[in-house]
Write a structure and sequence with these properties.
Shape: globular
Helix content: 25-40%
CATH topology of one domain: Pnp Oxidase, Chain A
CATH class of one domain: Mainly Beta
Strand content: 25-35%
Structural class: alpha+beta
Number of helices: 6
Length: 241
């Protein structure tokens, strides 16, 4: 004998709780403002006055967001791809920018280091919400000589050197206590040997093929100026927002 289907059950308390939490999260999310014109007016972007190459514009924008009080404007998203082509992203620090490109550093054996060794291309993303600005960079990644990486690391703080000495970045950690012990030993060594070498520390440069500048607008009339490098130098074009 075939049993009749059971009537649908009402959501359990846990399900109700999940639904309520999801609803509260969605409401909070939708209540957030972006570039509130009542707080500050966003700057205009005169693309006709933009330079012929992206580097002067980047340094000008960077100076303006620093002057505006942007928090950690030198942080950037670094996107890479693994051997199967699956994307990966994390936040790193910009160490310099010059005619060659955008500079950063990490351990060669880290996840990003291994991915860049297999696929030496990357994308960078800067977001500066105080002025409603973004900058996107894409290009080939090259490795600097070891002496450049050494100088880069030792121009930074004792804490940066200690963190580099800990090493094992992206490896599995058995316990937090193991990290504490390694960190204490690294700090002691960094203070005792301030010029100690860290062979795995690697300096990278993203040599840009494309750099896009995005200026937000409170009425969503965002301005996007895209620079692309060709055989004859840089070209510029506007993009729809």
């Amino acid at each position: 004998m075939i049993e009749p289907p059971s009537p649908p059950q009402s959501p359990s308390r846990d399900q109700d709780g999940d639904q309520d939490q999801s609803s509260e999260f969605t409401q909070a999310l939708r209540g957030l403002r972006v570039w509130d014109p009542q707080v500050s007016a966003l700057p205009l972007f005169d693309v006709d006055a933009a330079p012929a190459e992206p580097l002067p514009l980047f340094t000008a924008w960077f100076g303006e967001v620093v002057a505006a009080g942007e928090v950690e404007p030198h942080t950037m998203s670094l996107a890479t791809a693994d051997a199967e082509g699956r994307p990966d992203v994390r936040t790193v620090m910009l160490h310099d920018v010059d005619e060659r490109g955008w500079h950063f550093a990490s351990h060669a054996g880290s996840r990003k280091g291994r991915q860049l060794a297999a696929r030496p291309y990357a994308a960078l993303g800067f977001y500066w919400p105080l002025l409603g600005r973004q900058v996107r960079v894409r290009g080939r990644v090259t490795v600097e000589p070891a002496e450049v990486a050494h100088a880069d690391l030792h121009a930074r703080s004792t804490g940066a050197l200690a963190a580099a000495l800990v090493g094992h970045q992206s490896d599995v950690l058995s316990s937090y206590e193991e990290l504490e012990r390694a960190s204490e030993a690294a700090w002691t060594r960094a203070e005792r040997e301030p010029d100690v070498a860290v062979p795995s520390w690697t300096a990278y440069v993203v040599e840009p093929d494309e750099v896009e500048f995005f200026q937000g607008d409170a009425r969503r009339r965002h301005v996007r100026l895209d620079y692309r490098r060709g055989v004859d130098g840089w070209s510029r074009e506007l993009l729809w927002p």
